[in-house]
Structures
1.
Amino acid sequence: MATRTRTQQESPSWQRVTHQRWILPLISLLIFLGIWQLLYFLLDLPTFILPSPAIVWAKFLEVLNNGMWWHNTSYTLLELALGLFFGSVTASVLGYVLSKTPVLEKIMSPFLVGSQSVPVVAIAPLIIIWFGPGLFSKVLICSLTVFFPVLVNVLVGMRQVSQDLRELMDSFKASKWQILHYLEIPASLPVLLGGLRVGATLSVIGAIVGELVGSDRGLGYLINLGRGQYDTALVFVAVFSLIFLAASLYSIVLFLERRALKWQTWQEI
Amino acid sequence: MNSSPEYSLVVQNLKVSFRETDGVLQVLDNVCFNLKKNEFACLIGPSGSGKSTLLRALTGLIPLESGSIEFPEVHGRTPRTGIVFQNANLMPWRTLEQNIALPLELDHIPQVEINSKVKEMIELTGLQGFEKSWPHELSGGMAQRVAIARSLVQDPDILFLDEPFGSLDELTRERMSEELLRIWNEKRKTILMVTHSIPEAVFLSDRVLVLAGFPQGIVLDLPVELARPRDEELRYTPEFAQAAATLHEHLRI
């Protein structure tokens, strides 16, 4: 401990700056934009193949000002929010029910294994065919994407609940509900939230694939629109918005995870 | 049978078996003993014997094959029991005070009452200042203090301890023994403590029960008639050595 403090004090100022956790990612982002702009000048490609960062930025401001950006982004956001909510809630409830009834878990196991090997995006076209291109089918795709990682993680989490703590609860003559409330849910929460974190990023892919297959609103629709009109800058705007959306979702889940698990020692990721 | 009020616990012809894949393993057979009110008794036996099994049977965590366990009524009600396990068994997502409050919460006690009882227990076990600590921040000895506080918070009449200091180092262990005696003095409970340490058993108890043989039964019921209050000095007296030697002899077979 003592040596650690000393090295920190002795380290040169630039090293202290790089310890700030946003500095290095920001530098790499700027370098990326620089190389991109350089390529644009060097290769002299037409704008519909590779627009420069400046053109993309101008396009972004344009769609932001005419309301097109928010009109589509908010729709994708709505799909994601509803999908994540319903998917994780049903998966958690079903997970706890299954872990309490091993027979049901055995019956469900082929679907659980199957779901791990077939990505939900592969059946997204089917869902659009069955339920139409509206909001419902997109929410369903998002729900399914987040459903299986959360379900599997709840089952794993429940199996990891300490036998000693179960015995402790038994010694207090706790009821089944009390065991669920006081022991099983808090004990399996870290694993559950881990599943939600994986599911949240995957569900962005689910939403976009759903929109690409068929929709008239959303970031996926914007990509389709840009492609059809050779408006490549618009495609870039949509893609960057998506990245931003996925990263924000990931951060929100991570934040919730840290709030809920403040009893653990957290390390910076 | 004769549930006279001077007894806290009457155990008769207790038999416990475990069903294993290759037949039935009988662990305890014909165990008979009783505990007087406010008595401090230790249960000692070779490691791997049925000590913990006996304690689990007494607290209702495992079923009996035959025999009876009777807790005579105290002041016209069924006596309450508390248990402390070998591991502190704290819930890592609850703070120290929340861990102590757990049995009261499970019993739907009003929050105001919980707060005052938890505070009292924290003072009794000397944990002041650590109320908001997380279990992973506590040392082994402190965690075990929390476990003791949690077992006492419901004010049990009988306290069962299953090698509570088994995972602690020698010095912490001796300090905890003295703490336990102080608490017992203050609160006056019937205590049955499982241990595999002869000095610990002699130092703490009024009576030492030796569990041995296979299947296990009580082979010796040794009263320890050393004056109380007991302190460190006692460990170096001839009487202490005498009692320890007797126990040692019975444990060797």
Note: The domain at 53-260 of chain A is CATH 1.10.3720.10 (MetI-like fold).
2.
Amino acid sequence: MHEISLATALIDLVHEQAAAARARRVTRLVLEIGTLSHVDAHALRFAVDAAALGGPAEGATLEIQEPEGTAYCLDCETSVAISARGAPCPRCGGVKLLVQSGDEMRLKEMEVV
Amino acid sequence: MCSTCGCGQGEKGVEDISHHHTHEHANGAHSHEHEHDHAHEHSHTHSDGTTHSHSHSHAPGHAHAHEHAHDHPLDAAAGAGATRLLSVERDILARNDAIAAENRRDLQATKTLALNLVSSPGSGKTALLVETLKRIGDKYPVAVIEGDQETTADADRIRATGVPAIQINTGKGCHLDADMVRTAMSRLGTPANGALFIENVGNLVCPAGFDLGEAHKVVIVSVTEGEDKPLKYSGMFAASALMVVTKTDLLPHLDFDVDRLIDNARRINPTIGVLKLSAKTGEGMDRWLHWLETARALRLATD
């Protein structure tokens, strides 16, 4: 996944939200990056720090929540938790799984001054 | 820089087809002109009574976080350093998704079937496209948007078939985004009741996350690649409606196990369709043309 594009889009969104809330500085960002989203959290941190330079979110603490994925197993007809796409069903070992969640890339909340 | 593929922002541009050359900007922060820029007027009155005003424009992606060097009394009254928690709950790519939705609406209005063709470099996307366009001929109108980091070579190959095409150069960027495609669509036009093929940058990672407004993503894999590609690059196979296996004429010379490739693709996406073909010998091309015709019929039949 393209962390620089994501970081730029995130900081644009943060600036927009900060301006709307008449905030002068952003001190903390809480992101939700699903484990199936193919985003490397380490690379994202680096890119967000760089994208925030010179703006109100410079130096903001970045908190990344990484919820695990959920999928529906077509073999045992159950919703199960999975850690990677292509991983077998942890319940029955089946490999026909429809991913239901885990590819989120969201800005959940931000702390501003 | 993208740690996965090393891409960053560089010189980009959507080809100006009226002149047939690429239009590049020195500043890579915004890839192209926006028609919806807006201007701000500012005026200042100085103590000596003179007033001057100036205006400047911002691209829509520009954030409006103006830093003020002075404190407003209101802020001070609210309490300096008062920390607030804002609940946002917005997708990071919301802006891309919103533009993709506009593209999708426009394509729906003209009943155009748009396909986003994704693959590794060298899978034979352009060769397949050239052969496909020849076979579609005059049956229905088609147009092509070509994405590459550099050169107009692919768009030139498409135009040689007589089909309108436009090149998007992404510079060091590794994928097309909805805004680039929107600009290309406005310059190229969308073929009414026909098909728009969008050939993405050769890359199995980054284009998966960027909706362009297409009806379907079609992932193309050649038999000279590995059978484990769907497991290694699962995001793309999860996002695609169809997998086209190309260069099947080479199978007798290779140890490639097509069934294993298909099993792996279905493991990532149990509902993915599969077609095997060779653009060179024409084997399997009829089924691909039939798939296109069916997808187009669905587009025509539904609002």
Note: The first helix of chain A runs from residue 3 to 20.
